[in-house]
Amino acid sequence: MTNFSPFIARKPFHLMTKPIGSLCNLDCKYCFYLEKETLFGGASAHDFRMNENLLDNFIRQYIEAQPIDTVSFAWQGGEPTLLGVDFFEKVVSFQNKYANGKHIENAFQTNCTLLNERWCQFFKEHRFLIGASIDGPEAIHDAYRVDKHAKPTFARVIRGIEYLIKHEVEFNTLTCVNRVSSQKPEIVYRFLKGIGSTFLQFIPIVERSADASSKSLGLALATPPQLDKLAPADDNPRVSHWSVRPTDYGNFLVEIFNRWVKQDVGKTYVQIFDVALAKWLGIKNRGTCVFEETCGGALAIEHNGDVYACDHFVYPQYHLGNILNQHLGALVESPAQIQFGMDKKNKLPRYCQTCSVRFACNGECPKHRFESTPDGDPGLNYLCSAYKHFFNHIDPYMRVMADLYNRKQAPALIMQMLKDGTFTMPQQ
Question: Given 311, 343, 377, 395, which residue is catalytic?
């Protein structure tokens, strides 16, 4: 047990917890996290398992550091089910020990292949929200999501989701949009609804081949760009062959939106659409960090207690410290982390500062800001054209839904307006 005094953060923060590091039973071709094993070493899987003393310290510090009464834990990997149910029984026990009157929530991201009766009974009993990773129907899912023997995983994933449904465990679907799945937006959308998902998250896959800095760490993928040391786009490493193309991603979102706005508003929740409506309503800090003006409030903790600026920035230059040496709250409020968060706003290119959809996009994730603007300035997001296309397309619909909401009417009324022809494009 560490003897640090509690350190409460100034505002709530999110922490992606990696209790088994990057270890996974799958070998998804586009996964950026698998190779993080190289950064931590370890002779066996046991070396990547968060030990009980560290787990105890982490849970205590995380609850202490939150300035609000609801504390949300997020468990990820790798594949956290490799730790076994007994590990998470300890998690719940420690949470109860340190809750001190606070309400505790748990989210758990899994590839679903190892789920069974016991896992789902545990999830149901303790009200875990499950993020189920699935990319679409069989051919689309199995294009990249394979096991260590390069075998398809779709059937095992579906079996796991069936266990979740059987035990009435609440789950969301997490769908990676890659070079293959981006070509079939309506097929992916219909499929996800068909397996019982009512809350959908779409995650664009963008990775680059290793540059010199990455290779020196023994990695095959490029580290994220450092916003204070941006290079011209011509000097950047090449995007991988499985990364989504910007045009395809924009079209993917637009086609799904066109179907959703006609028949699924208020019934099927698509994260990026919900976040967009909040933007049109002027609600800040709602939804996903990538579209906020600044970042720094979504960190990551590894199996050994090391804390990093972000889940996508688990590299030596973004290492903040270890919770066995410094309280988690102090690491969250460290000058390095505050600077990391502010750089997202302060390093935004002039081209983006005057963009009509900046209020919705805010330059998206710094990880993807490795292109150059038409003016030649570095720091443009690789997916810029996708978001311009998408946000401009949904603008009239979002303005109508925002107006309905402000008049204390359901935004879902837009579906009837589109059906009976009373929907008109708002005046600019």
Answer: 311
